[in-house]
Design a protein that fits this description.
This protein is mainly alpha-helical. It has two domains: about 100 residues, DNA polymerase, domain 1 (Orthogonal Bundle), CATH 1.10.150; about 170 residues, hpI Integrase, Chain A (Orthogonal Bundle). Helix content is about 55%, strand content about 5%. The chain contains 13 helices and three strands, in the order H-H-H-H-H-H-H-E-E-E-H-H-H-H-H-H. The chain has a three-stranded antiparallel β-sheet with strand order 1-2-3. Strand 2 and strand 3 form a beta hairpin. Helix 1 runs antiparallel to helix 2, helix 10 packs antiparallel against helix 11 and helix 10 packs across helix 13. The N terminus is likely disordered.
């Protein structure tokens, strides 16, 4: 079967092995990363934390117990002086979580990150596809492989995260009820629903899927397609559709949510469908101007 887009071999981000970082610091960092794994954090979360901590400790060669707030602030100022507030805030959050862990485990005896360092982040609106762009993307997907078309349709009609899609096994799919079991953040499972078009594509896809492979989506080597591979698939479809801005999996998730909003669904319902733990996370869609919501409703309902 001609699978598209082979992903690069994945790195184990649950362990930092860089010998340029002192052995003592590596032990503590890896202890922290293990705690994230115990908390059922995702591999992408581990990647963010391990990369962020590795960047910091490659620059600052002090042992963790010798660090001061000034050491951390000097590094942040030097590295992130020209970065956007959200990027700065993410870097601070990584360090804050790590040093909070260090304090609780008594590797350090004082708080090193100050709340005043965090920049004020302006509220942003979700970036979604207008109805005509949704049509263009679907037309573009028809020129790709069956697998890639199915990835697009399942993301768009279910609102799944790309990490959830990557974890799907064939046994998680129920085409008769148009549902799938997905494993969300924190190891929380939920049922998602998909479209009739998605059902037709799934039935065709499963009829030629290798019987001895559990993973729903496979790369050209016959291994599970990871979430980075899914990102590349969607990005490629967006480029082929000649959209005015970049297409990525989370934009399809925003589109799914705004489509529900256009149909008049309540935020509580949308939150449940998205697998949000906190309703406040879903309130980003409530920030859409009323005239935009009315316009969405008219376009969606024809």
């Amino acid at each position: 079967m001609p699978w598209a887009t082979e992903p690069k071999p994945t790195k184990n981000y649950w362990v930092v092995n860089n010998e340029k970082i002192s052995r003592e610091n590596r032990v503590i960092i890896n202890d922290f990363l293990t705690s994230l794994k115990i908390e059922n954090k995702s591999a992408s979360t581990a990647e963010q934390y391990s990369k962020g901590l590795e960047r910091f400790f490659l620059h600052c060669q002090k042992e963790i117990g010798e660090l001061t707030s000034d050491d951390i602030k000097d590094w942040l100022d030097a590295r992130y002086w020209d970065k956007k507030p959200k990027t700065i805030s993410s870097a601070i959050s990584i360090l804050s979580s790590f040093f909070t862990f260090c304090e609780s485990e008594e590797y350090i005896d004082k708080k090193l990150i100050k709340n005043s360092w965090r920049p004020k982040i302006p509220h942003t609106l979700p970036i979604y596809l207008e109805k005509n762009d949704q049509a263009r993307v679907k037309i573009s997907a028809e020129t790709t492989t069956l697998r890639d078309r199915l990835i697009l349709e399942l993301l768009l009609s279910s609102g799944c995260r790309r990490s959830e899609l990557a974890k799907l096994n064939t046994e998680d799919i129920d085409t008769s009820n148009k549902t799938a079991w997905v494993m969300g953040k924190g190891g929380k499972a939920r049922i998602v629903h998909f479209s009739e078009t998605c059902t037709i594509l799934l039935e065709e896809y499963l009829s030629i899927h290798p019987d001895d492979e559990q993973a729903l989506y496979l790369n050209r080597l016959g291994n599970r397609l990871d979430d980075n591979g899914i990102y590349r698939v969607i990005s490629k479809i967006g480029k082929q559709a000649n959209l005015s801005s970049k297409l990525y999996p989370h934009r399809l998730r925003h589109t799914f949510a705004t489509n529900l909003l256009a149909k008049g669904e309540e935020l509580v319902y949308i939150s449940d469908k998205l697998g949000h733990k906190d309703l406040n996370t879903t309130r980003i869609y409530a920030r859409l101007p009323q005239e935009v919501i009315i316009s969405l409703y008219r376009k969606y309902m024809g």
